[in-house]
Design a protein that fits this description.
Strand content of chain A: 25-35%
Protein name (chains A, B): ABC transporter ATP-binding protein
Oligomer: homodimer
Shape of chain A: globular
Helix content of chain A: 25-40%
CATH architecture of the largest domain in chain A: 3-Layer(aba) Sandwich
Number of strands of chain A: 14
Keywords (chains A, B): ATP-binding, Nucleotide-binding
GO molecular function (chains A, B): ATP binding
Structural class of chain A: alpha/beta
Largest interface: A-B, 23 and 23 residues
CATH topology of the largest domain in chain A: Rossmann fold
Radius of gyration of chain A: 21 Å
CATH class of the largest domain in chain A: Alpha Beta
Number of domains of chain A: 2
Pfam families (chains A, B): ABC_tran (PF00005)
């Protein structure tokens, strides 16, 4: 059985419940977005999956095998996050060299090619890199390591728009050539909406949504019109329809609705698709 | 004469030319986007305007008066950036209190109200705040200070989507009630596109664009179609039209063009508006 399974994971820190009974599957060869507010538990989950933190309860399997104290299983996983695992006084090019020792499939030539594309100076010490270039350095490691499961925690923090665009393009290109499982945890949701296939939303340590992006977006929409028109439309909706919120500008109102929309809206109302970031904001606002 | 004028500012660091002959005007009561790649010179410019760094050449005037060693002029300016000017062991609530000493117009009650909205714990020490909450703390200072010229350097770094949305909403609300000059330097261009009126793009220490957002977007467009159709359209364009770049997916091509579009495109081609972030990426890629 291929894939990573997260089985009933819970974890608390002092009096804070970070994760509560999390069950998830990361299938082979898919790109996931792991979305959540600051403090929702995303980083704790990624640290547990990669064995850098331990759960209070539950366990993780990699290709069917429990991962705890299992080097073969853990070597199939690569996590990049703000915690840098390389000695800080090491130079970038030396970090590439030693990566081959830990990960025999690490492609040093590819790492050097990406460094050129991002104009990363490989002679610099890791600790002397700016926030943006720290992210670029870690992304290059993750893109060159060639393991089946790669987890990106905030890969574009500090990157300018051109470098973010380049990162997404290279990720998609690499994935198209040889699919792997990529899990991207990010606050820049609208930018990854076209990159990810599956969406996992964590809220206060629990899974709120776990479905394909297309499904999630197909089951939500925006309705706009005059305040009275929109209000009368909202009151006509079946009881099980959830209204996530609304914005009012002047005399106009836009309401964000979870559920399938009618084929025919009342005259004067306009329907538009929901974007993933708007949906996220409304789902996680309370 | 109201407004800030940047007069022929140049500045080098060692062998790097950070800024070269910059001339700019920030008018009263407008919202500006200051956009540029990492290392383009944005932060140096903001530090010079707020007198935290000195130019090699040129000067800055505030409401017509040179700002160097002029406390009255400098008190009209507030800059927030990653450099925190408060003692790090100070608590948030005490930072609000002493802000009134420097800026008599600082609205402490409003700062406390915003802290509640962002769930910022005012009893915490500044240094113990996460990256996201450091940004929130600085934004609250900037929104409460009530001076005519407020400069935001990366105000949403580390903020989740909900908090970014809240920040933009509060900024617009405050601006609508009493307009002030806000200059926002950010890498999240598409998100501020609807907030800013004026766009300044800096590239390698020089001003590349300085015009209204509407003008900039009205003079650019995207054309999509089959590769051969798009190529033949591009070759038919007048010589002074600039083609910024293109994306190819399968047999289809989208080209990004600077210039006014024809009213009637050849059959089979589709025109769509350019978004500001795409435009930025293509203008600053080389």
């Amino acid at each position: 059985m291929k894939g990573i399974e997260v089985k009933n994971i819970s974890r608390s820190f002092k009096d804070t419940r970070a994760l509560h009974q999390i069950n998830l599957t990361f299938e082979e060869g898919k790109i996931y977005g792991l979305l959540g507010r600051n403090g929702a538990g995303k980083s704790t989950l990624l640290n547990i999956i990669s064995n850098r933190k331990y759960p209070d309860e539950g366990y993780v399997t990699v290709d069917g095998v429990p991962s705890v104290e299992n080097d073969d299983a853990l070597r199939k996983i690569f996590l990049i996050n703000e915690k840098n695992l390389y000695p800080e006084s090491m130079k970038v090019k030396d970090a590439f060299k030693i990566s081959k020792d830990f990960y025999p499939s690490f492609d040093e030539a590819y790492a050097l090619k990406l460094s050129e594309m991002f104009e990363l100076n490989i002679k610099k010490k890791i600790k002397s890199l700016s926030t943006g270039y720290q992210s670029i350095f870690r992304n290059i490691l993750a893109l060159s390591v060639n393991v089946p499961y790669v987890f990106f925690d905030e890969p574009v923090l500090g990157l300018d728009a051109y470098h973010r665009d380049l990162f997404y393009k290279i990720l998609i290109e690499k994935y198209s050539e040889e699919p792997f499982t990529a899990v991207i945890s990010t606050h820049l949701i609208e930018e990854v909406a076209n990159v990810i296939e599956e969406v996992i939303i964590i809220k206060k340590g629990e899974i709120l949504k776990n479905e394909s992006r297309d499904n999630l977006l197909a089951n939500s929409y925006t309705v706009s019109g005059t305040i009275s028109q929109v209000d009368s439309y909202l009151s006509s909706l079946p009881k099980y329809t959830e209204v996530l919120g609304a914005d009012v500008i002047g005399g106009l109102k836009s309401a964000y609705i979870l559920g399938k929309s009618d084929k025919h809206l009342p005259e004067g109302l306009e329907k538009s698709p929901m974007d993933l970031q708007k949906l996220f904001i409304h789902l996680t606002s309370i």
